Amino acid sequence: MKKNNNGGQVAANTSTEAAAGAGAPSEGKTGVIFAYGSAFKADWPEPVKVMMEKIGTLGANHPRDQVDKDIVNEYAERMKDGAEFPPVVIFRDRDGLEWVADGCHRYEAAKMCGLADIKAVVVEGGERDAILFAVGANAEHGMRRTVADKRKAVTVLVQDKEWRGRGVNWIAQQCKVSWDLAKSVCAEYERAHPEETEDGKDKAKKCKRNGKEYLQKSAVSKPLPAHIVAIGEMRELACKARAVVPEGDAKLAESLDRVGSELHEILGKATGAKCRMAEGLQVPLNVYQHKLVGGISATPEFERKGLATHAVNVGLGCGHQCSYCSSPSLRCRLPAYGELQINPYGSGFAVIDPKSADRISKDKPKLTADNTVMLSTCDDAWSPEARKYGVGRKCMEVLLKETTARVRVLTKSSEVKDDLDVAKGSEGRVMVGLSTGIPCSREDVAKAVEPNASSIKDRLQALKQAKDQGFGTYAMLCPCLPLVADTEAALTVMFKSVNDCGVSDIWLEPVNARGMALKNTAMALRLAGLKAEADAVDAIRKEEVWSKYAAALAETAVKVAEAMGLADKLHILLYADKITDPDRERVKALGDTVILLGKDTAKAKDGGNSEAGDEGGETADGGKPDGNGADENAA
Ligand code: SF4
Fold it and tell me: For residues 359 and 298, is the Cβ–Cβ distance under 8 A?
């Protein structure tokens, strides 16, 4: 027995085995290493001998597409010659039933040789635990998985109702495959088994919009063509490699930047993007056009937030490119992404409906002066691509001319100030909000996580200008990142800057842990050399740490606001279902300043004594019947 560089056992093997560890083997014809290590956990027990007759296989739930007979034969030959193989992994339940979760080729070979026992690491767990382990077991060691194996692993999970319900992200993580591949297999499965998707998430359901009841269309995005997925993955890999280039290797960093940019351009051409925007942008955009359905929609979520009764959205992907944006995870299932050949979780693209103003004009409910329309809730009507087509300006014009409602603007672009002339004479009906969740002393962070948005300084100036022109103004401090915007000092600076702009209200929110938001934000910060900030974001990826950070942020914000005499202006938005029980009490103690949102709202309000949670919160399947996306504040 040898040891590989990772400390794992090594056995000689065939040419089809993947080299998972480093170091050259000294035995075997082709001599490729077969190592174990990364799939094994440090606290697992020492291997023992297990009787072959007691072991069961996962059968149809085995994630290998097929057992490779040549490999089994070769292993059997070598076992007969006395070669020692790494232990297989077996899960054993309380009744003593055992399943092979890793090492099916070794198990089959041992069976072929008629061995009475096999060396195994035996861990506690039932068949389902074994399946969950098995689907990701060969990602980093052992015989390399084929595409068919990866697809089979995803299929094993998606055909289980409970696991399917956990969503594409979770499945991709468990199977250690790309999101695109998981998404593609899930979508195929859903199409092939419509009868199995009646859990309300996948099938048409009734929705109300503007008082009318609609059957919501099944929102399943078409899988992307394989070559588009591959180009996207190459681009992502170039970006990942760029993020970890050692400091000082400017040449390599430059090469990877160039490769990433070229692949991005190729992706735009291959998918028929309408144009490419690069000038003045840190992240160049492939811009797509897409005609959205519906105009002004009621928004119970924003009503609960105290922000608006109705909403207008203008696209399906915002060019400000904020790393923490919630929109992708809220709208990822919309069929439009499949039609446009876009990975909703990808970056470097924007989708705009240039005729949004016409859409609003044609589809508007009866609104009164008591209503407020938010422009916008899932995107930004002053993003670079929206500005290119004058979308925000035109929408504001239509809303003011054709309705009597108030208009609440929310943007991260200071250029909104240039369009306020269309609201002249209606100053009392317009509230302008510039989203600024980062203190102006940390423009470096803003540049990293909101690369195509205006600088914080410019946003604050625009807010001040709006106030000076007689418009109502409000602050949206969202999201307040850990280490950057959750300390007393940072909150003091932020409260002071927006208060100096004459805001009537201050809304504040932690960074939400949806979809890829935290992972992307940590990576963006790392890429910008902001290691401590990146580590702080990585830390809150654990649910219980996020909960503590969110509760502490709320407490600190209330304390600072009280000290500054701003307590009456402060509203803290918190998704209750993400708060763990011990932190609920802390949040409850802050009273009405905290607006609890999400499915578990009632539970949080009464400290967990309520049976049923409130409806609302995130709607991962796209939310609205009009296909405009979920009812959520992405900014
Ligand atoms: S968070 Fe808002 S401004 Fe940023 S990308 Fe998302 S929609 Fe655009």
Answer: no
Distance of CA 283 to the CA centre of its chain: 19
Question: Which pTM does this prediction carry?
Answer: 0.66
Rounded Cα distance between 509 and 435, Å, is 11
The rounded average pLDDT for each run of 10 residues, N- to C-terminus, in the chain (635 residues) is 30 28 29 39 78 80 80 90 87 80 88 90 84 83 79 89 83 86 83 60 50 52 78 87 86 92 92 93 95 90 94 95 89 82 89 96 91 95 97 97 97 97 96 96 97 98 97 97 98 97 97 88 92 96 93 98 98 90 91 84 43 27 33 45
Ligand 1 atom closest to Cα of 450? Answer: 4
**What spacing in Å lies between the alpha carbon of 512 and ligand 1's midpoint?**
13
- As for ligand 1, residues whose beta carbon falls within 6 Å of it are 318, 320-322, 325, 327, 379-380, 383, 412, 634-635
For residues 150-171, b (16+ Cβ closer than 10 Å) or e, as one string? bbbbbbbbbeeeebbeebbbeb
Q: Are 273 and 285 in contact (CB under 8 A)?
A: no
Domains of the chain, first to last = 2-145 (3.90.1530.10), 250-606 (no CATH)
8 A C-beta contact, residue 119 and residue 154:
no
Closest C-alpha among 264, 429, 398 to residue 342: 264
Atom of ligand 1 nearest to the CA of 324: 1
Is the distance from CB of 106 to CB of 118 less than 8 angstroms?
A: yes
Candidates 555, 459, 573, 553; CA nearest to 509 is 573
Ligand 1 geometric centre to CA of 126 (Å):
43
CA of 341 to the centre of ligand 1 (A): 21
Determine the atom of ligand 1 nearest the C-alpha atom of 318.
Answer: 8
Closest residue by Cα to atom 4, ligand 1, is 322
Query: Which stretch of DSSP H or E encloses residue 259?
Result: helix 250-270
Tokens of 127: 């068949």
Amino acid at 238: A
CA 378 – ligand 1 centroid, Å: 7
Helix axes 226-243, 517-527, angle to 10 degrees: 50
Rg (the chain; Cα; Å): 27
Q: How far apart are CA 167 and CA 170, in angstroms?
A: 6
Among 379, 382, 387, which is best to mutate for testing ligand 1, by the most ligand atoms less than 8 A from CB? 379
Atom of ligand 1 nearest to the CA of 412: 3
In ligand 1, the atom with minimum distance to the C-alpha of 411 is 3
Strand intervals (E) in 32-87: 34-35, 48-51, 55-56
Taking the centre of ligand 1 as the mean of its atom positions, its distance from the CA of residue 379, in whole angstroms, is 6
What are 121's strand-pairing partners? 89
Which one of 380, 414, 459, 520 would you pick to mutate in the ligand 1 pocket, going by the greatest count of ligand atoms within 8 A of its CB? 380
Cα–Cα dist 224/336, whole Å: 11
Q: Atom 7 (ligand 1): residue with closest C-alpha?
A: 379
Which ligand 1 atom is nearest residue 435's CA?
3
Residue 308's pLDDT is 96
SS3 for 297-359, per residue? EECHHHHHCCCCCEEECCEEECCCCCCCCCHHHHHCCCHHHHHHCCCCCCCCEEEECCCHHHH
Structure tokens at 62: 């085995």
Query: What is the C-alpha separation between 253 and 38, in angstroms, rounded?
Result: 29
Residue holding tokens 């495959």?
177
Residue 35 alpha carbon to ligand 1 centre in Å:
44
